[in-house]
Specification:
Bound molecules: zinc ion
Radius of gyration: 12 Å
Shape: flat
Mean pLDDT: 95
Distance between the termini: 27 Å
Largest sheet: 5 strands, antiparallel
Helix content: under 10%
Structural class: mainly beta
Strand content: 35-45%
Number of strands: 5
Low-confidence stretches: none
Order of helices and strands: EEEEE
Length: about 80
């Protein structure tokens, strides 16, 4: 089963998992709000807004960045 990066659109916590993570206890209040960013791979991408670094197969989706708007991924 493929592994994916899931990122919370409210607190930027991320998790590597094949299925949707549970949405308990977001530090931003309430539950995490996950979006599936990308399949785990060996290319490095960094968001120029929140500096988050992901090792993914391809350009991750913009989703929602906790810094506002969508993530602005750049391949390193
Ligand atoms: Zn969260
Ligand atoms: Zn970001």
């Amino acid at each position: 089963m493929a592994e994916y990066w899931w990122i919370c659109q409210r607190c930027n916590t991320r998790i590597q998992k094949s299925t949707t993570p549970n949405n308990a206890s977001c530090p931003a209040g309430g539950g995490h709000r996950w979006f599936r960013a990308a399949e785990v791979g060996n290319h490095a991408f960094q968001c120029s807004k929140c500096q988050q670094l992901l090792q993914a197969k391809m350009m991750p989706s913009t989703g929602g960045c906790a810094s506002g708007g969508g993530h602005a991924w750049q391949r390193l």
